[in-house]
Specification:
Structural class of chain B: alpha/beta
Shape of chain B: globular
CATH class of chain B: Alpha Beta
Pfam families (chain B): Y_phosphatase2 (PF03162)
Keywords (chain B): Hydrolase
Shape of chain A: globular
Strand order of the largest sheet of chain B: 1-2-5-3-4
GO molecular function (chain B): phosphatase activity
CATH class of chain A: Alpha Beta
CATH superfamily of chain B: Protein tyrosine phosphatase superfamily
Largest sheet of chain B: 5 strands, mixed
Largest sheet of chain A: 5 strands, mixed
Oligomer: heterodimer
Number of helices of chain B: 5
Number of domains of chain B: 1
Helix content of chain A: 25-40%
InterPro entries (chain B): PFA-DSPs (IPR020428), Prot-tyrosine_phosphatase-like (IPR029021), Siw14-like (IPR004861)
Distance between the termini of chain B: 55 Å
Low-confidence stretches of chain A: 9-15
Strand content of chain B: 15-25%
Protein name (chain B): Tyrosine-protein phosphatase OCA6
CATH architecture of chain A: Alpha-Beta Complex
Largest interface: A-B, 42 and 35 residues
Mean pLDDT of chain B: 88
Number of domains of chain A: 1
Distance between the termini of chain A: 13 Å
CATH topology of chain B: Protein-Tyrosine Phosphatase, Chain A
Structural class of chain A: alpha/beta
Chain lengths: ~190, ~150
């Protein structure tokens, strides 16, 4: 458990690399758990790398729509695209994501049949950080540990206290888990 | 407080890829978390070896000696490890027989970042992406980026 499968190229020497395409992972890309990845909005430059991850579900948390090229990429690769960032009436794009969005996102992240999953927002910082933070809370991580992880992606001095408060306040008992991935069972039992 | 004890991963813990994890010097309070990783090997890149942890007796402990990490406040900080050290570490962490493996230095920052940065290079990541990941853990300057860029040339 606690592992992710990032494609192995099998190359060891830079001489091999020189004759090989360079992979460019999306902004703020990182594995969260096995076959669960986080990042900012991918661009055309990242598609070759993404293809190797064999993603089946994208959880989109930004309020804005993704770029057409990314939507086309998900279409062409049979990836189901879950737009969970749509704003409630009267809300602003910079507001924190709602409890409902977090719950919906976590229920996808904890559904084995949707894997491999990529969770992303515009920059892969705050909205993605909120959902991953709440996942860590469900896994029983201490608050200091999950804030440490969030802060690494938010950037130096970029942490938003409101995101940390959101994670602390989120009631994890509302999340319904039916058929979670194996790593989740092992970390929470 | 609930009676359920909280899980504390080591500082700067992260999953690198399937079977490879990184972070800082593991402490007693991290043992429960590390147990969950089902580790086979812990690689310590530091001046002194790590004393085996209670509860992690069945893990192979490998020590790779490095110089002491230098302060970030110094205008020019040197590199505490050589390219030979990195190659030695990469051979160990990429050995499927030894995975899952946890690789760490003293604080999970400069030394671990150099090793993982070189690892990403072997996986054809663009230098820019490698350094972006590096920068999430600690600041880097030209010395470190050159080290990673030129390791395999």
């Amino acid at each position: 458990m606690q592992e992710a499968e990032i494609p192995e190229t099998g190359l060891v020497n830079l001489s091999d690399i020189k004759s090989h395409n360079i992979f460019i992972p999306p902004l703020n890309f990182a594995p969260v758990q096995r076959q669960l990845y986080r990042c900012g909005e991918p661009t055309v430059l990242n598609f070759e790398f993404l293809q190797l991850l064999k993603i089946r579900t994208v959880v989109w948390l930004a309020a804005e729509d993704p770029k057409d090229a990314f939507l086309a990429f998900t279409d062409n690769n049979d990836i189901s695209f879950e737009h969970l960032g749509i704003l409630a009436e009267g809300a602003n794009p910079w507001d924190d994501i709602t409890d409902y969005t977090i719950k919906a996102a976590l229920e996808i992240l904890l559904d084995k049949s949707r894997y491999p999953v990529m969770v992303c927002c515009g920059m892969g910082r705050h909205r993605t950080g909120t959902v991953v933070g709440c996942l860590r809370k469900l896994q029983g991580w201490s608050f200091a540990s999950l804030v440490d992880e969030y802060g690494r992606f938010a950037g130096p001095k970029g942490e938003r206290v409101s995101v940390e408060m959101k994670i602390e306040q989120f009631d994890t008992s509302v999340v319904q888990v039916f058929d979670p991935p194996e790593w989740y069972i092992k970390t929470t039992s | 407080m609930s009676s359920v004890s909280l899980i504390a991963p080591p500082v700067r813990y992260s999953c690198v890829t399937k079977g490879i994890y990184r972070g800082s010097y593991p402490l007693e309070r991290n043992v429960d978390f590390l147990k969950g990783l089902r580790l086979k090997t812990i690689v310590t890149i530091a001046p002194d070896p790590l004393a085996p942890l209670d509860g992690l007796e069945n893990v192979e402990y490998i020590h790779i000696e490095s110089a002491a990490e230098q302060s970030k406040s110094k205008k020019k900080r040197g590199l505490p490890i050589s390219s030979e050290t990195v190659k030695q570490a990469l051979d160990i962490i990429q050995d499927p027989e030894r995975q899952p493996v946890y690789v760490h230095c003293l604080n999970g920052a400069q030394v671990t970042c150099l090793v993982i940065g070189c690892y990403r290079r072997t996986k054809c990541w663009s230098l820019n992406s490698v350094l972006a990941e590096f920068g999430r853990y600690t600041d880097y300057d030209r010395v470190e980026s050159q080290f990673i860029e030129t390791l395999f040339t």
